[in-house]
């Protein structure tokens, strides 16, 4: 479903991504981890073309992201993305946040969009907050709204860019629970995160990145029990110690 | 021997003064509206990434910000009438001064508004564009639905303050002897030999309106941060 082939990206002479390749099958959940600055967020943003790349090819559902002829907006409408800082639209109510792109991008009627939106709010446990504004919600609630907003577009896959990094610790689980539910329903997911508990629970594979390279791409059992690279071992020992 | 104030010519002149105020308000309203629309376009041109558009907009803004308003007004009073008359076959008796003033103020204000709006657009978090794009919105759609509404909400106080300044600046149309509020006050004052009283009165009216308006802006600002 998502095919990343030899992707490289640089700002001037600084290499952000070097020769990254990975395959994601339909229904797979891939966790991407690595030290900060290793290029994991950049890589995931390349998948829906939010970040351009200079070399290589990314194909999502048969459509080449890097091809200048590709209608990126059309592709992105069906690739959900959740950001570290939620990025809800602060000037719209929660329900309008969920409806705006359904109406303006997918061309759904307002009634249809509201119905779909309310269903998803219910799913993330926030139906009673529909008329509130994002600023009135906690971080965890905002991120759940953001997930619902992405799901409202009926995405073929979901990209998560450190979805719990900006949250207070006690709110991490409410967001992870929603993501686990999605994974168990068979949503194709690429998740940049340091939440190894989440990875253990639902990931099919773990990709470990360092200095812009994919150092390791292994089934999660292998990754956690016997990471092959020294760098991944070091990283794991550091984050799993606590 | 002190100056003897005599305010008696004001009550009788109130209808003329009111008409003058209408002209002043008309010019202000048009210049604010057109200025904001044209200013927004200039700001978008400057931020568009198309070099030629950016240069054109930057040139326009710098030009208008570098020449005195009164000169812009004079040019337009001299140019617009002849253009209008030759283009639209308007009878020479038609008073084009009001239109000229509106055009001049709109174009001039747009330069200032575009800078305010550019800063307003910058004030919206960068991630908002990414989020809108990620939902399948094009650049234009994201601007219209997500970025600009937030930018304008942040900018309301600044835009209104600029409007208050403009309201006062409209008095410069006296160079074309257009009977705005200031012009009428001046005329009534000279006619009755009571220029001091009329100008004090006009000043007080400008002050009261501007003061109330800026208090209103403060109030809006407070409510926004609260």
Number of helices of chain B: 8
Please name the CATH topology of chain B: MetI-like fold
Distance between the termini of chain A: 36 Å
List the domain count of chain B as a whole number: 1
Based on DSSP secondary structure assignment, what is the total number of beta strands of chain A?
A: 10
* Strand arrangement, major sheet of chain A: 6-7-8-3-9-10
Task: Show unreliable segments of chain B.
Answer: none
Question: What is the C-alpha radius of gyration of chain A, as a whole number of Å?
Answer: 18 Å
Order of SSEs of chain A, N→C? EEEHEEHEHHHEHEHEEHH
Question: What string, H for helix and E for strand, traces the elements of chain B in order?
Answer: HHHHHHHH
CATH-assigned homologous superfamily of chain B: MetI-like
CATH architecture of chain B: Orthogonal Bundle
Residue-averaged pLDDT of chain A, rounded? 92
Largest interface: A-B, 27 and 18 residues
* Overall body shape of chain A: globular
Structural class of chain A, by secondary structure, is: alpha/beta
Could you characterize the architecture of this molecule?
The complex is a heterodimer of chains A (242) and B (226). With 242 residues, chain A is an alpha/beta fold. In chain A, 38% of the residues lie in helices and 25% in strands. Chain A has a six-stranded mixed beta sheet with strand order 6-7-8-3-9-10, with helices on both faces. A four-stranded antiparallel beta sheet of chain A has the order 2-1-4-5, covered by helices on one side. In chain A, β4 and β5 (63-64) form a beta hairpin. In chain A, α3 (94-104) packs parallel to α5. Chain B is mainly α. Chain B has a single domain (9-225), classed as Orthogonal Bundle (MetI-like fold). Chain B is built from eight helices and no strands. Chain B has helices spanning 9-47, 51-65, 69-88, 97-123, 126-134, 139-169, 181-192, 195-225. The longest helix of chain B is centred in the first third of the chain and has 39 residues, at 9-47. Chain B is globular and about 70 Å long.
């Amino acid at each position: 479903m998502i095919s990343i082939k030899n992707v490289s990206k640089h700002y001037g002479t600084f290499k952000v991504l070097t020769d990254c390749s990975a395959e994601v099958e339909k229904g797979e959940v891939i966790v991407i981890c690595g030290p900060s600055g290793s290029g994991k967020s950049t890589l995931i943003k390349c998948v829906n073309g939010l970040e351009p790349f200079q070399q290589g090819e990314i194909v999502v559902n048969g459509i080449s992201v890097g091809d200048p002829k590709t209608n990126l907006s059309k592709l992105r409408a069906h690739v959900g993305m959740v950001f570290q800082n939620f990025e809800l639209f602060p000037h719209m109510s929660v329900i309008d946040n969920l409806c705006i792109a359904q109406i303006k991008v997918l061309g759904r009627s307002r009634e249809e969009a509201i119905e779909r939106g309310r269903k998803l709010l219910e799913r993330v446990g926030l139906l009673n907050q529909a008329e509130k504004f994002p600023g009135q919600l906690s971080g965890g609630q905002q991120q759940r709204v953001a997930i619902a907003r992405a799901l409202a577009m009926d995405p073929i896959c979901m990209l998560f860019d450190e979805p719990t990094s900006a949250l207070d610790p006690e709110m991490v689980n409410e967001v992870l629970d929603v993501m686990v539910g999605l994974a168990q329903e068979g949503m194709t997911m690429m998740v940049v995160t340091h939440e190894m508990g989440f990875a253990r629970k639902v990931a099919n594979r773990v990709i470990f990145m360092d200095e812009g390279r994919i150092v390791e791409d292994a089934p999660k059992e292998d990754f956690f029990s016997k990471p092959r690279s020294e760098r991944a071992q070091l990283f794991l020992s550091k984050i799993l110690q606590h | 021997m002190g100056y003897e104030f005599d305010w008696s010519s004001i009550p009788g002149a109130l209808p003329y003064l009111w008409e003058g105020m209408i002209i002043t308000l008309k010019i202000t309203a048009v210049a604010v509206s057109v200025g904001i629309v044209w200013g927004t376009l200039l700001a978008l041109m400057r931020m568009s990434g198309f070099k030629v558009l950016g240069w054109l907009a930057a040139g326009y803004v710098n030009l208008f910000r570098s020449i005195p308003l009164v000169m812009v007004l004079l040019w337009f009073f001299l140019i617009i009438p002849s253009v209008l008359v030759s283009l639209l076959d308007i009878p020479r008796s038609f008073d084009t001064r009001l239109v000229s003033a509106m055009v001049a103020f709109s174009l001039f204000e747009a330069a200032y508004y575009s800078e305010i709006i550019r800063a307003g657009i910058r004030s919206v978090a960068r991630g908002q564009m990414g989020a809108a794009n990620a939902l399948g919105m094009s650049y234009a759609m994201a601007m219209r639905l997500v970025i600009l509404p937030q930018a304008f909400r942040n900018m309301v106080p600044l835009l209104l303050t600029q409007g208050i300044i403009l309201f006062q600046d409209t008095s410069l149309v006296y160079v074309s002897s257009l009977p705005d509020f200031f012009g009428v006050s001046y005329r009534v004052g000279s006619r009755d030999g009571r220029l001091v009283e009329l100008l004090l009165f006009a000043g007080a009216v400008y002050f009261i309106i501007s003061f109330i308006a800026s208090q209103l802006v403060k109030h809006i600002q407070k409510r926004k941060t609260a």
